[in-house]
Amino acid sequence: MDKSEWEGRVGDVWAEEWRRTDRSFVPIDRALAAAAAKCFAAGTSARILDIGCGAGTTSLSLARQLPDASVTGVDLSPALIGVARTRAAEAPRCRFVQGDASRWAGETGFDLLVSRHGVMFFDNPVAAFAHLRSLARPGGRFVFSCFRAAEQNRWASGLSHLIPGAAPDPHAPGPFAFADEKRVRDILSRSGWRDAEPRPLDFDYVAGEGDDAAADAADYFGRIGPVARAARELDDAGRARLLDALDALVAAHLKANRVTFPAAAWIWSATA
Fold this sequence. Notes:
It is built from twelve helices and eight strands. Helices cover 42% and strands 25% of the residues. The radius of gyration is 18 Å and the shape is globular. Strand 2, helix 6 (78-87) and strand 3 form a beta-alpha-beta unit. Strands 1, 2, 3, 4, 5, 6, 7 and 8 form an eight-stranded mixed sheet that branches. By secondary structure, it is of the alpha/beta class. The mean pLDDT is 93. The two termini are 29 Å apart.
């Protein structure tokens, strides 16, 4: 996906849908906040950079977990930054700036860099990670999450079966570009990060909830992700078939008032 899409239409949709996107990542936020807390003693006035901060959820979680820290969030989308700033009205130690984290150089010397699924989209990941290392102080820490293989994320593998076309390049910028542990370890090493260690995290991806959770999930997938993109490109008949198949998929994962899919992520840590 071209970064201009995140700066425009895609970012705008994610800003409108931040509540539904964030509910799927609650376990990730908890894991990142816990990993960050282990990096510092209580009362440390750490400086933290949140890469691809989106609507600010991870930044705000870190601010609550580390009340003496200051958190700067950077994201490509002006709309998402607008949401994050609104949400941070009661969090004076959080600030949010619009920019491309692979080039942004507003500050350096950060004690911790963190990212919730925001680092898999760089065109040149080695160069981007080298730049990010330049923003950290010597010995600073990097904690980030990314998806493991699409086959282990059944929302993704299930959706991919609904959409005709060739399989994408697994290393192309996108949600699963960092699924391969060896590849990520190599990227981190080549960009100057050391002591890189991944930890697997399995969790439930919440796609829908409420009185009509199936409709909620179908609407959500119709707004964000590969089904939304495919639906825009199909004719009326093709779109109708796709949405019928989507309804069947979410119905198969409905239990009580939630639609959930097994999901799998990495929680990586490294040192500058």
